[in-house]
Structure formats: C-alpha cells, structure tokens
C-alpha cells in the first residue's frame, strides 16, 4: 500500500483485533551529502579491508566471525548460527501489552520511529479501528517484539491516517541524569532575573514547524561542492556575532527589549541637569549688578 519497502512485516494486535502491517522507516539520511575516501595521487576510490592484526594478511568475508574479548587478547568466537539460535523466537506479532497516557514516557528513551501501515486492503477496517481507538482515547500502547534480530520494546501511537511505532531504549542504555547533572550546584535566582526570563519565553512562544529549520551544515557542503565543481572561489562563511555579557541581569534586560528604555533615562536626567546649571549661572550674573546698585 506504500511505495517504500517495508523494513519489517508482521501483525499488529490490540485485544482481539489484529491485522497484517508493515514497518517503514520514518527518517532517512539518504539525502545527506556523502563523501568517499580517494587516493589523492591517483584519484581512485579506496576500498575497505579487514587485516589480521598479527599476520597483517587480508581476511576474507567468509572467515570473519564475531568475538567477545575475555581479556589479555583472548576471544570467545561466536558464529552466525550460534548467534541466531539465542535470539528469542519471533512470531512477527506486535501485540499491545499495556496502555499509558500520551507523554508519560520520558523522551530520552525514544530511539527510532517507524510508520505502521496495513499491507493488504482486506486489513484496512481492522487497522482503522485500532488507529481511531488510540486517537480518541489519547492512549499509547506498549508492545514487545523481535525487530532486526533483537527483542525491542515499542511505543505505538496514532498519527494522522496511520500509526507510529517508536522503538525504545532499554533502561541500561540510558545514562542516569543524576550522573550527568551531579556537578550542577543549587543557586538562588533573583526574582527580577526569573521574571525577565519568563517574559522572554512568553514573547517567543510559537509552534514547531520543521520546514523552517534548515541544515546549515548540508547547505555549506553543497555550496562548497558546487564552487569546487565550477572552479570558483570557495564560499566564505559569515562571521557569527557572539555577545559576551558580564552581567546576566543586563543580558536578560537586553533580551527582553529593555535596553533602549534603560538608556533613555540617564540621557534625560543629564539634559535636565544641564538646564539647571545654565539657569543658576544666569541668575548669579543678574544678581551681581543688583548688589552693586544697592551699595
């Protein structure tokens, strides 16, 4: 039902409802600019080979096996058949085991998204029923299955006309946030600083539109390749202006648009001070002749 090739085919099951589905990669890096390794002197492309670290001889593909290091350069060799034998049996069933509210899972556990779509027209009714049930209840299903020779936990959510299945990282794969933030000390933030920061956030609220975010690195690579191909001078990147404020409160005020108003007040005060000084001088100059007449 889709032009792309399914990365996995099986059955999606929620309760007693089931249908044949395919998983299709939701993200792709195929559009990125890629480079090959080239011999600079000949212009020929290089090929990668595996070399025995002791004999320095090339090892052919059929002689390459996986190995686990036990220490001191010793390895336990595992052949592909042994590896396949320990992978849990898969009945190609993506079955919902539990339902949780959307947004309950910390997105640090999110791994890779896949589009889920029915592979046969006959399964459309069952697929639509499951999709709409997930959508109207704002529920997310948690399922487990074997994907690409690994047991994976999968999050299943309704998405537009289809369903998205997101593989999740296991707990042991996610670093503890306590470890990452252990050196962040507790400090008391001034009320004005917090109010200014909240004001800045409030004035810049918006919606996420992925089309408005460009990959500047890819754009720069494309411009570089184009210039080299046409024999033109290489493009020079625009310098980035980086502010280095010494005062956090001052930086927040400027970000909140209070820079101009704070600058105007001192100027107005200086101007008034100048007028007062002029008036006092003229008064003194008029007073002197009057004192002479009085004498």
How do you describe this structure in short?
With 295 residues, the chain is an alpha+beta fold.
Write up this protein:
The chain is α+β, with helices and mostly antiparallel strands and 295 residues long. The chain has a domain at 8-27 and 87-173: Ku70, Chain: A, Domain 2. It has helices at 80-86, 124-136, 177-180, 191-203, 216-230, 248-255, 259-294; strands at 8-14, 17-25, 66-71, 74-78, 93-101, 110-118, 139-147, 150-159, 162-168. The longest helix has 36 residues, at 259-294. The radius of gyration is 34 Å and the shape is extended. One of its GO terms (molecular function) is double-stranded DNA binding. Homodimer. Interacts with LigD.
Key structural traits:
seven-stranded mixed β-barrel, two-stranded antiparallel sheet, 295 residues, Ku70, Chain: A, Domain 2, alpha+beta
Helical content stands at 25-40%
Tell the overall outline: extended
- Strand numbers in spatial order across the main sheet: 1-2-6-9-8-7-5
β-sheet strand percentage:
15-25%
Written as H for each helix and E for each strand, in order along the chain, the element string is EEEEHEEHEEEHHHHH
| Unreliable stretches | 260-295
Q: Give the CATH level 1 class of the domain at 8-27 and 87-173.
A: Mainly Beta
* Major sheet attributes: 7 strands, mixed, barrel
Quickly give the structural class. alpha+beta
Rounded radius of gyration (Å): 34 Å
Topology:
Blueprint: E1 8-14, E2 17-25, E3 66-71, E4 74-78, H1 80-86, E5 93-101, E6 110-118, H2 124-136, E7 139-147, E8 150-159, E9 162-168, H3 177-180, H4 191-203, H5 216-230, H6 248-255, H7 259-294
């Amino acid at each position: 039902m889709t032009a792309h090739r399914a990365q996995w085919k099986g059955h999606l099951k929620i309760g007693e409802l089931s249908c044949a589905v395919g998983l299709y990669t939701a993200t792709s890096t195929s559009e990125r600019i890629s480079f090959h390794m080239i011999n600079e002197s000949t212009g020929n492309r290089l090929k990668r080979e595996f070399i025995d670290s002791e004999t320095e001889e090339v090892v052919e593909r059929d002689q390459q096996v996986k190995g686990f290091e036990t220490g001191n350069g010793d390895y336990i060799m595992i052949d592909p058949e042994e590896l396949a034998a320990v992978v849990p049996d898969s009945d190609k069933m993506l079955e919902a085991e539990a339902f949780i509210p959307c947004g309950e899972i910390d997105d640090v556990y999110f791994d890779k998204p896949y589009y889920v779509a029915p592979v046969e027209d006959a399964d459309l009714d069952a697929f639509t029923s499951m999709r709409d049930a997930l959508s109207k209840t704002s529920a997310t299903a948690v399922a487990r299955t074997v994907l690409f020779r690994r047991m994976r936990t999968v999050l299943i959510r309704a998405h537009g006309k289809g369903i998205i299945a997101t593989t999740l990282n296991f707990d042991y794969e996610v670093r503890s946030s306590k470890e990452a933030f252990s050196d962040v000390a507790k400090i008391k933030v001034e009320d004005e600083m917090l109010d200014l920061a909240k004001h800045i956030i409030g004035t810049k609220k918006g919606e996420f539109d992925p089309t408005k975010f460009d990959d500047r690195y890819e754009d720069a690579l494309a411009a570089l390749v184009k210039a080299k191909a046409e024999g033109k001078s290489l493009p020079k990147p625009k310098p980035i202006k980086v502010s280095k404020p010494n005062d956090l409160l001052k930086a927040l005020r400027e970000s909140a648009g209070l820079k101009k108003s704070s600058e105007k007040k001192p100027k107005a005060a200086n101007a008034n001070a100048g007028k007062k000084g002029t008036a006092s001088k003229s008064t003194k100059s008029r007073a002197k002749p009057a004192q002479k007449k009085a004498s």
